[in-house]
Design brief:
alpha+beta; elongated; five-stranded antiparallel sheet; 448 residues
Length: 448
């Protein structure tokens, strides 16, 4: 027994050495990657950084290629500049490249930063020829919390680190008259957010002494070296329609500061104006018609240009795809029908073939009714047999022993007694089938 163990050990060692000789270990470039989230629990719209660092034990021969990061229910702001440097890992310093994204989630829940594919070119230690390596980062889970209920009650809100407002009027002053046209521009600068998140204030602003004609806000991405910032410039034109003394109300912007964990507000200053009578009231109607013309035709034009769509497609495109789909379904149906008929014919041919019936006969049990039924179903399908009777075929072939065995079995079967001779009959049929097969091969006739 010990000798057998030693032989097994030596055999295993020989196999391992042979595998090492036949499949040498490839030269591996010493490159690794890490991913880090500066926060793993944030509020809706609160940004967080995803920093990817690629290390090497030697150097990079080509720029590192970072894949496209796709994060569910979030906006991604990639910072295009890679930052090379020396990074400490396990007490040792390695050269590497760092790249980061800013993620702005807009839905509460539990999510995961998926694996990111990175391609690097670096030679191994002691070598000079670079190898291409495809690396994958580890998925990183994070949680997005919903904003507090008090913030949702506020009309205009978003998430930012700091917000400033600038309000300007043209012409500026406090003395106006009926029919004057004033343009107001509110500039909102927000740090730590995207300009798309800054609310549109002009949509909610209504004055009972003037008609407002707001314009679409102008959004500007003012990102810095390591953070995303945005600016929204919102302009509205006012036509003064009533005389008297009025107060221009303050404009309030509410935002959630995730760093102080509280709701903060910034606002413009309210001020009073005096609107004098204007004896030339005819100009008011003319100006109002001119300003209305800048808004109403635009809405009519957009409505007129809106085409009739079916599932997001023009009707003629939908009809084309529908017709193509009908043609494809028609030919697919014909192909599948032919395939089904072909398979069905092959299955029926196999089901009633001599080979299949012979296998069923070999699996038949001892019960005489089932056994004889399986035997004669196969016998009827057997080609080149001397007679339709099994016993008669044995006699005609000169097999007296086989003929006697079949007579004894049939005699017991007639009286309804299960016999132990079923295995002998099966062996007899095996030999008889081989003999018929040899004779058929001589005549170059094959079984179907």
């Amino acid at each position: 027994m010990p000798g057998r163990h030693r032989r097994a050990i030596w055999t295993g060692l020989i196999l391992v050495l042979g595998a090492l000789l036949l499949f040498p270990t490839p030269v591996r470039a010493q490159v690794s990657v890490s991913v880090n989230l500066n926060r793993k629990s944030v509020y809706v719209q609160q940004p967080f950084h995803v920093t990817v660092t690629v290390y090497t034990r030697t150097w990079f021969t080509q720029p590192v290629e970072f894949g496209n990061l796709q994060v569910p229910n979030a906006f991604i702001v990639p910072f295009d500049k890679s930052q090379p440097g020396m990074f400490t890992v396990g007490g040792r310093q390695y050269p590497g490249i760092q790249f980061y994204y800013i993620v702005f989630p807009y839905k509460a829940g539990n999510f995961t930063i998926p694996s990111l594919e990175i391609t690097a070119y670096s030679p191994p230690e002691g070598g000079s020829q670079a190898h291409k390596l495809v690396l994958h980062t580890t998925p990183q889970p994070y949680t997005v919390k919903d904003v507090p209920a008090e913030l949702k009650k506020a009309g205009n809100w978003f998430v930012a680190k700091k917000v400033t407002l600038h309000d300007s009027w043209n012409p500026s002053g406090t003395e106006y008259k009926v029919g004057d046209v004033i343009k107001r521009t509110i500039t909102i600068n927000a740090a730590g957010t995207l300009p798309q998140f800054i609310p549109n204030l002009s949509e909610e602003e209504k004055l009972d002494w003037a008609s407002a004609y707001p314009q679409d806000p102008v959004l500007t991405d003012t990102r810095g070296g390591g953070d995303a910032n945005g600016r929204s410039t919102q302009t509205a034109t006012y036509l003064i329609e009533k005389p008297g003394d009025f107060t221009v109300p303050e404009v309030v912007v509410s935002y959630w500061n995730p760093y102080s964990a509280r709701m903060e507000k910034v606002s413009t200053k309210a001020f009073k104006i005096h609107v004098a009578e204007n004896p030339n009231l005819g100009i008011l109607t003319t100006l109002k018609d001119s300003l209305d013309a800048t808004v109403a035709p635009k809405a009519d034009t957009e409505q007129a240009k809106t085409p009739f769509l079916i599932l997001g497609m023009h009707w003629y495109v939908f009809c084309g795809w529908a017709a193509l789909g009908v043609v494809v379904l028609y030919f697919a149906f014909r192909i599948l029908r032919r395939f089904f008929l072909f398979v069905r014919r092959r299955w029926l041919a196999y089901r009633y073939s001599e080979k299949h019936l012979y296998r069923k006969f070999l699996r038949a049990g001892r019960e005489p009714k089932h056994f004889l039924g399986a035997l004669y179903r196969w016998w009827d399908a057997l080609p080149h047999k001397p007679s339709a009777s099994v016993g008669m075929s044995m006699e005609l072939s000169g097999d007296e022993k086989g003929s006697e065995l079949m007579k004894n079995y049939l005699d017991k079967a007639v009286h309804g007694n299960p016999s132990d001779d079923t295995s002998l009959v099966k062996n007899l049929m095996k030999q008889y089938r081989k003999e018929i097969h040899r004779k058929a091969m001589r005549r170059k006739v094959l079984f179907k």
